[in-house]
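Query structure, 352 tokens:
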């Protein structure tokens, strides 16, 4: 039996203070033989404009609505929303085992660009800032009415994205979703226990240690969280300033956020020289009527990226078996993943 613990060699569990749960890390499994394929994928060349794509400018969507000839970002109500505003409420439950509650909301789709053959890492910082500016406007509008506004992007077919046109979704709900509730509870408890902010403390530690940093600028850190579950999971957090919501960003911080997003997603694409799939989104303090009178100082705005790829552009990690029935588990340590991403070129492989 080993007498000295090595983080790169020995299994251990890591605590996620945001979620209040553990992840099993098994770095010794990275030494097992691998005989799978690791060849590059041949990317399908997409046209800049596709008259059959319902997200392109001027195209008629399945609902019969015709998209305008937009030249920047474009937002519209989802034609097939998961949340509707005007719906009846369920009856009061007569059994605690069969609870239900009202759920109202709205779902929107937001196109990043009129071009179908582009993705965020290939856009300019100015173009990405326009995307961020639109997110801010949507958050301001929907946040007046709804308790939670979730901005998220599913990129690539591996993440269930059925349309390659660069876009994201915005779901606003009358209730706090599970992930938001868990983070709200744990960040609030951390502040109550330590009289300080969890993610601000975490950012300071990561900025000093640097072993899990991937990219950074004056305002933001892009890093692999200590408690990451997915192989190349990352987080973008403010470097120093306390920021509750995306709506609190200054003009300079919006531009620097565009810079850090471009840096990080370029590293992703360069890892396996493919359009790297992921699900990403932003979390910030709750919104809704009266939110300004609530004390949400324990919150800190941040972004999360969950990519599935493990060994190549075609080999994914699956959350199955033990991970569904017992505990999240990973082989590659957060430090090893950060080191791989950090040492990749800063220039996109398609621009070299």
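Result returned for the query:
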């Amino acid at each position: 039996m080993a007498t000295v613990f090595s983080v790169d060699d020995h299994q251990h569990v890591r605590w996620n203070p945001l979620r209040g749960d553990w992840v099993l890390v098994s770095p010794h499994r990275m030494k097992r033989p691998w005989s799978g394929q690791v060849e590059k994928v041949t990317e399908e060349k997409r046209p800049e404009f596709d008259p059959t794509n319902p997200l392109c400018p001027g195209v008629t969507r399945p609902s019969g609505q015709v998209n305008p000839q937009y030249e920047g970002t474009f937002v519209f109500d989802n034609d097939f929303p998961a949340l509707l505003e005007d719906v009846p409420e369920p009856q009061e439950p007569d059994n605690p085992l069969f609870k239900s509650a009202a759920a109202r909301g709205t779902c929107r789709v937001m196109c990043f660009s009129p071009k179908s053959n582009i993705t965020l890492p290939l856009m300019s910082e100015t173009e990405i800032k326009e995307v961020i500016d639109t997110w801010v406007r949507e958050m301001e509008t929907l946040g007046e009415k709804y308790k939670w506004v979730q901005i998220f992007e599913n990129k690539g077919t591996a993440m269930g994205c059925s349309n390659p046109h660069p876009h994201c979704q915005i779901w606003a709900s009358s209730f706090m979703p599970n992930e938001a509730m868990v983070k709200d509870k744990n960040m609030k408890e951390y502040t109550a226990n330590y009289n300080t902010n969890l993610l601000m403390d975490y950012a300071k530690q990561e900025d000093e240690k640097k072993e899990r940093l991937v990219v950074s600028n004056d305002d933001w850190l892009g890093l692999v969280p200590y408690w990451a579950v997915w192989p190349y999971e990352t987080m973008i957090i403010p470097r120093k300033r306390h920021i509750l919501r995306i709506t609190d960003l200054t003009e300079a911080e919006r531009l620097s956020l565009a810079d850090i997003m471009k840096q990080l997603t370029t590293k992703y694409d360069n890892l396996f020289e493919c359009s790297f799939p992921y699900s990403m989104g932003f979390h910030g303090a709750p919104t809704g009527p009266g939110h300004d009178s609530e004390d949400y100082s324990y919150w800190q705005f941040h972004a999360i990226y969950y990519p599935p790829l493990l060994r190549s552009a075609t080999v994914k990690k699956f959350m199955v078996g033990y991970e569904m029935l017992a505990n999240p588990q990973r082989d590659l340590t957060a430090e090893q993943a950060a080191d791989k991403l950090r040492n990749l070129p800063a220039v996109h492989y398609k621009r070299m």
